[in-house]
Amino acid sequence: MAYEKEIGKRKTFAIISHPDAGKTTLTEKFLLFGGQIQTAGAVKSNKIKKTAASDFMEIEKQRGISVATSVMSFEYKGTLVNILDTPGHKDFAEDTYRTLTAVDSVILVIDCVKGVEEQTERLMEVCRMRQTPVIVFINKMDRDGKDPFDLLDELEEKLNIHVHPMSWPINGGSEFKGVYLLHDKSLNLFESSKTKISDDVVKLNDLNDPQIDVLVGEKNANKLRDDAELIDGVYGELNKTEYMHANIAPVFFGSALNNFGIQELLDTFITIAPTPLPRPTASRQVDPMEQKFTGFIFKIHANLDPKHRDRIAFLRVCSGRFERNKPYEHTRLDKQLRFANPYTFLAQSKEVVDYAYPGDVVGLYDTGNFKIGDTLTEGEDLQFKGIPSFSPEIFRELINLDPMKSKQLDKGIEQLTDEGLASLFKQDLGSRRFVGTVGELQFEVLQYRLEHEYGAKCRFEHRAIHKACWMSGDAEAIKEFMKFRMTNIAMDKDGQPVFLAETAFILRMAQENNPKIQFHTTSEFKV
Ligand code: G4P
User: Fold this and answer.
1) Pocket test for ligand 1, best of 49, 257, 265 (most atoms within 8 A of CB)
2) pLDDT tens per residue across span 484-527
3) Could you report the per-residue pLDDT of 383-429, keeping only the tens digit for each?
4) Residue 141 and residue 167: Cα distance in Å, rounded?
5) Rounded Cα–Cα distance for residues 491 and 487 (Å)
6) Does the beta carbon of 66 lie inside 6 Å of ligand 1?
7) pTM value?
8) Same domain membership, residue 119 and residue 241
9) Claim to verify: residue 203 and residue 350 sit in the same structural domain
10) Residues 202 and 329 grouped into a single domain
11) Contact of 243 with 249, CB cutoff 8 Å
12) Is 388 within the bounds of a domain?
């Protein structure tokens, strides 16, 4: 029973957004509400600034901060909330996609001035693929933004999800008066404040309550009445099952910077967001209530001190109780491992833990045993599903600049790509290596870390490759195709062949000419 209670009080989620929409600010405000930090500004530095592209010291520093803030936990009204941090920088988008495999729900932050932006669409695609429940927070209502009805339409259209407003703004920008809580029938009046941690909510009898006219002015009150009637007619009651199935996203309006609308968001979150969910493996579904421990690695981070090449692997506990010093089976290597100093995270401090429960994230010191997606169990041969590789967008060939240091380079590139920093594809038994990333910044980080952590000098040469495609379908047809396109075939890190298509046209032609083969730009299909 105690075990079930532990699971039932946990909610593990990520805040996602296009850079600058307010993810960091909202995270910080959550921690403020959870009593984990006392001052604003504490989480602020947790992002790789756009200007950091060639400032390695800055990258190093920020990498350090991002380890410390990879997971932030706090208790709020009896719920243990685990926030998994996702890097805001678009070049690290893949890291974000992977983190999404370890959460049970997400809060999506939208800037009311900009609406749905490019990165938002891509992140939501991943959420839809995984059927992750989403709550939307429309931020920066203190600025003159888009019309709220237009924003809702835009969300539905661009994110391909139904929305359900939970609160409704009264004006915006300098005329912003606050929000009306549609289900609560109360008014949350806006007051610009960066430190307060409770909202001034006025309970109303109904929308005809004359208090509204006094509080927000007659014109605004009448507009609110019209809007609310319209919303009621269109949206009705929130269907929580549809939210859990990721078909409907509840929407809140507020201003993270002004601590406005955070409380209602957090209160709704702890009420409706899912507790740890079952997770699929290649052979069966694992339920969090199962007594035996299972978990998987979703993120690997290099140690801050480059002299010690150990790393930190982030484990999501999926079932059972994780215990310190207990031997667990590393199913890919068929090897027993035990962890003397696993740690969890409370806001920005980390501490050694003896036990962890489903929904929790544990940091494990790793000397090179782990790859992203690796599974730990009490002996059962399981492999958690849904840790996809995505086709990179930029490809370069790795050129060794110091033949005396080939071994170091080999080891370095293997380990750094295990961390998920980039994808590695090999040709001709590994003598040619192509590195693929989603952003330019990773090449700089790779080059810097190969030199400083492994003592290997290298250069990356541009290669005209459009996409890396995994293949499925008729085995004979694939074999023939691979023979025919030998120079464009490489192996991924799991030994799976990929087709490196030079252009979108070549990929289309390959598809047309080989109807028995399916080309995939994620590796998800194969697990
Ligand atoms: P991110 O993590 O999603 O990239 O966004 P972040 O929270 O860093 O917010 C981006 C910018 O938007 C910050 O300003 C932040 O202060 C501002 N912001 C966040 N929420 C609100 C809001 O509700 N209203 C308004 N008006 N601004 C908001 P910055 O100038 O880039 O950074 P800073 O100088 O304030 O640190």
Assistant:
1) 257
2) 999 999 999 888 899 999 999 999 999 999 999 999 887 654 43
3) 998 666 677 889 999 999 999 999 999 999 998 888 877 899 999 77
4) 12
5) 12
6) no
7) 0.84
8) yes
9) no
10) no
11) yes
12) no
